């Protein structure tokens, strides 16, 4: 067992109880358990960072597995949760990040022996991946906030009494601010990532496009992202519609990662 294995198991061992503690803290309305969840998630992020460094140091850049691509994606997702918790004072962002981080890290381990369709090659390709992962990571947190927004809004419209753990949930305006910040950060990053990807394809393959289905899905995600960004910035969209679009963007990203990459022929890794 090397350091990569040690840090991978440690990350999972911290993200799993962080997820359980988040659920228990919310349902039980226990601030102590909620804080424990945040601490466990932060510790998991530290172990996750060491896992990523160990994977890179072991030569993953030259012979990368499909699972490796999920490591920086899940890392950026937790980083987005930590940023939202710090900037917006919303620890609930970490409650969304912890279970997704556990799931993606578990998938990374599961695919660790599966060769990637394409290895990392050069700074342009690394920038392409990093920017894409930032765009998807922040939208994962926004999607969690969006799902909670839609549920809260539906309960309000039905005039359901505010009782139990719902009393501790963030206000609709706070959840919408998570969406706004995620869109402001995520859209430029995702756009940069797509642009770098097409430029890298032109340099490496001699063509901007290869007809790969993953490229078309990426362009669809970019179009929806652009719509969300434009409507928020130019028309002042708030509330229900941005929440729905955040869910659409993240769902399409998951479809790209776990369906396109495993069912359809593709030159891309995860």
Automatic annotation (TrEMBL):
Keyword annotations from UniProtKB, A to Z: Cytochrome c-type biogenesis, Membrane, Transmembrane, Transmembrane helix
Domain Cytochrome c assembly protein: 71-264
Pfam families recorded: Cytochrom_C_asm
Keyword RNA-binding among record annotations: no
GO biological process: cytochrome complex assembly
Subcellular location: Membrane
GO MF terms held by the record: heme binding
Annotated GO CC locations: plasma membrane
Primary residence: membrane
Taxonomy, superkingdom: Bacteria
Membrane topology designation: Multi-pass membrane protein
Transmembrane segments: 6-27, 39-61, 67-85, 92-113, 125-151, 180-201, 213-230, 242-264
Entry coiled-coil feature ranges: none
Name of the protein: Cytochrome c biogenesis protein
Source organism (scientific name): Mailhella massiliensis
């Amino acid at each position: 067992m090397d350091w990569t294995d040690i840090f991978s198991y440690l990350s999972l061992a911290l993200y799993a109880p962080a997820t359980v503690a988040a659920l228990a803290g919310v349902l039980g309305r226990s601030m102590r358990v909620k804080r424990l969840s945040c601490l466990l998630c932060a510790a998991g992020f530290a172990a996750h960072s060491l896992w990523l460094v160990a994977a890179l140091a072991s030569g993953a850049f030259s012979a990368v597995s499909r699972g490796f691509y999920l490591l920086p994606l899940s890392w950026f997702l937790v980083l987005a949760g930590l940023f939202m918790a710090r900037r917006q004072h919303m620890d609930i962002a970490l409650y969304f990040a912890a279970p997704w981080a556990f799931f993606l890290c578990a998938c990374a381990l599961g695919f660790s022996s599966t060769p990637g369709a394409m290895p990392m090659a050069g700074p342009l390709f690394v920038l392409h991946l990093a920017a894409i992962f930032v765009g998807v990571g922040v939208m994962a947190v926004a999607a969690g906030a969006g799902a909670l927004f839609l549920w809260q809004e539906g309960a309000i419209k039905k005039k359901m009494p505010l009782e139990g753990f719902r009393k501790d949930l963030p206000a609709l305006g706070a959840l919408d601010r998570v969406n706004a910040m995620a869109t402001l950060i995520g859209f430029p990053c995702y756009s940069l990532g797509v642009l770098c990807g097409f430029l890298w394809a032109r340099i490496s393959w001699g063509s901007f496009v290869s007809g790969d289905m993953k490229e078309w899905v990426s362009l669809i995600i970019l179009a929806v992202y652009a719509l969300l960004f434009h409507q928020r910035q130019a028309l002042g969209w708030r509330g229900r519609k941005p929440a729905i679009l955040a869910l659409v963007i993240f769902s399409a990203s998951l479809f790209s990662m776990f369906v396109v990459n495993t069912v359809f022929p593709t030159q891309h890794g995860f």
